[in-house]
Every structure is written in structure tokens, then in C-alpha cells.
Amino acid sequence: MALYIGLMSGTSTDGVDAVLCRFAPDHAPKLLAHHSLSLPAALRRALLDLNQPQPNELEQAHQCSLALARLYADACHALLHQSGTAASDVRAIGAHGQTIRHRPDLGYTIQLNAPALLAELTGIAVVADFRSRDVAAGGQGAPLVPPVHQALFGHPEIGRVVLNLGGIANITVLHPNHPLLGFDTGPANMLLDHWVHQQLGHEFDEAGQWAQQGHVLPQLLNQLLSEAWLQLPPPKSTGRDLFNSHWLHQHLTRYTAEQNQSPNAVDVQATLLEFTAQTVVQAIQRYGHQPAEIIACGGGARNTFLLQRLTQLSGCKTYSSTALGMDPQHVEALAFAWLAHAHVERLPANAPAVTGARRPVVLGAYYPA
């Protein structure tokens, strides 16, 4: 039996999720404690800025990495305190870091992190930089969580799709008669959060209530759906390198010019939600082997209007992972605890059928306490 901490700060850049898990042979990981911290506004702005070239970006990136490590350490200390666990009892921390560039087509992916500092601040070994080894083996480096989805949600008879609705949406196809498959489908919370923050100052659209008040703009929706990346077959992954505020505003500018009027802000939000729903469902229809259920996790699993649209478009029962005993906000953090455990045990943890890597490899780099 061994204890591990998993940390996740995703593409949405809204906060850090931390979990303490117990791993035992022949048992699913057991979540013992969890804690979340919001990203300070200044750090969030700096991270978003670094998704594009910036003056003095090397120093900025390192300063952000150090700030993230301190925030990660605070989350770890909170976990240890609330669970009554000593740092010496934890085998390792799995710390994914914050993705600011993801270009597997060019052979690299960048996650900001300062794992040496995190190990120093916590007194616990850290495993980090999970994506790079898969990219070096010819893979996308993402998504890395499908094997964990399989362990948590696989069913011997029922075909399921696990849908992670983070900044980017990705699916894991779990079918008893087909190999494991997973890939990114396009944006999820990323554009929705950006637009509601720009227009209303809110961090996110609670339960999709604002989007539900608008009307989908068919011409704008068709423009968004014309993005060539969406037609690529898996394996594939994406991020803010493609789907960002500049991408959205290019489409809005084109729409305004063609329609000779600017769209209503609430209608843009409704269209963005429909865009997310349709790109997910199209991916499931092409590669999902007609699943019976869609299990949603990630922050977007709390967007009830989006889940309703997914049910309507797919014809599949769509529900939050909460119904299976796993808070949707904890799934990815647990996955990085699992990946840290796999690294320590020297177990290959990528799924070549998912990422496109040439072979299974051990993921991550180890920083001793």
C-alpha cells in the first residue's frame, strides 16, 4: 500500500485540484482527501499571456513556474493537514504543471512547473513532465488519462464514453469489444469562460444559464465547425495554440462583416456551447462504437445545459461522474497520482493506441525529496 498526491491545474487556468490517494495491488485507487485552490488573478493573467510569444518570456515563464510550485505546495500542505498524514508517508507527488504550449507536431510540449522547488517545500518526491516522453516516442503526449478512465469507469458489458470537459474536451471510448481509444475533440470551457468573463466579468457561466438565454447563430456555428483540425482523425490533441481568443475574434470579425452587424453577446455564448456539444457528439458518432452512456468529468460536468444538449444530440444518457462515486473535479488530479505511482513502479503508462506513440514508455521525471 502506498500514498500519492496528484495535482492538476488545467487549460481553464481556474485553479489547482489536489487529491491524496492510496494505491494497493489489485485494487482501484482510493481517494482519501481533496483540496482546491484558486489561481491568483495576476498569475492567471501571466499564464494566459504566455500562451503567445511575449517580451522577456523566459524570465516570465520561470517566475510563473516558481509561483505555481508554491501554490502546489500550499495545496499539498492543506491535504496533509486535513487528512492527518505525515509528508514522510507519501511516496510521491504527481505534478502535471501548467501547459502553455503544446505542439507535438513540432516535437515539443511545454508545461510550466518547478518540481525541484515543490520537492523542497513539501519534503516529498515529485514526478513531473509526463507528456514529453510520449512525444519523444512519436506520440501526441495527450490525452494521458484514458487508462485511468478505463480503470475507474470501464464496464464489462456496457459501452461508455468518458468525456472530460476541461478547457479542452477529450473523450475516452470504453467498449467491451473494442480497444481503448481517446483523443481531444476541441474546446470546452476555454472559449465559454473567456467570453462570459469578457462580457459579464464572471469566471464561468454557472450551469450554462447565460448560454441558455441566447439563440444559436447558424452562420457563426458553421464557421466555427469549418475548422480543419476538427476533421483530423485520431490520434490528435490540441490546446490554446489553436483555440484561443484570437481564433474566436477572427471568426466574430468575419461574421460581423458578412452579416453587417455585430452578434448579441448572449447569442455568441449560446453558439459556443452548441459548438462544444456538436464537436463532442460528432467525434462520438465517428469513433465511439455507439455507446450507451456518456460520463462527464472536469469542471464542465457542472454545466447542466451543456449535458442536456449532449443527451439531445447524441441520444445517449449523459451524466456526471458523481453518479459513479467520483467527483468530476477530482478525476484528472487522481490520474496524475496514478501516473506518479506508475513512474515509481517503472510501469509504462502511456497508451500508444491513444497517443500514437511507437511503443509504451515510462512517463515523467523524478525529483527526490
From TrEMBL:
Q: Which InterPro entries match?
A: Anhydro_N_Ac-Mur_kinase, ATPase_NBD
Q: What are the GO BP annotations of this UniProt entry?
A: 1,6-anhydro-N-acetyl-beta-muramic acid catabolic process; amino sugar metabolic process; peptidoglycan turnover
Main EC class of this protein? transferase
Name the SUPFAM superfamilies on file: Actin-like ATPase domain
The source organism is Candidatus Paenalcaligenes intestinipullorum
Which CDD domains does UniProt cross-reference here? ASKHA_NBD_ANMK (cd24050)
Q: Which UniProt keywords apply?
A: ATP-binding, Carbohydrate metabolism, Kinase, Nucleotide-binding, Transferase
NCBIfam families reported in the protein's UniProt record:
PRK09585.1-3
- What pathway, per the record? Amino-sugar metabolism; 1,6-anhydro-N-acetylmuramate degradation; Cell wall biogenesis; peptidoglycan recycling
- Residue numbers binding ATP: 10-17
Q: What does this protein do?
A: Catalyzes the specific phosphorylation of 1,6-anhydro-N-acetylmuramic acid (anhMurNAc) with the simultaneous cleavage of the 1,6-anhydro ring, generating MurNAc-6-P. Is required for the utilization of anhMurNAc either imported from the medium or derived from its own cell wall murein, and thus plays a role in cell wall recycling.
Report which reactions are catalysed by this protein. Answer: 1,6-anhydro-N-acetyl-beta-muramate + ATP + H2O = N-acetyl-D-muramate 6-phosphate + ADP + H(+)
Instruction: Name the gene.
Output: anmK
Similarity comment text for this entry: Belongs to the anhydro-N-acetylmuramic acid kinase family.
The name of this protein is: Anhydro-N-acetylmuramic acid kinase
- EC? 2.7.1.170
State the Gene Ontology terms under molecular function: ATP binding; kinase activity; phosphotransferase activity, alcohol group as acceptor
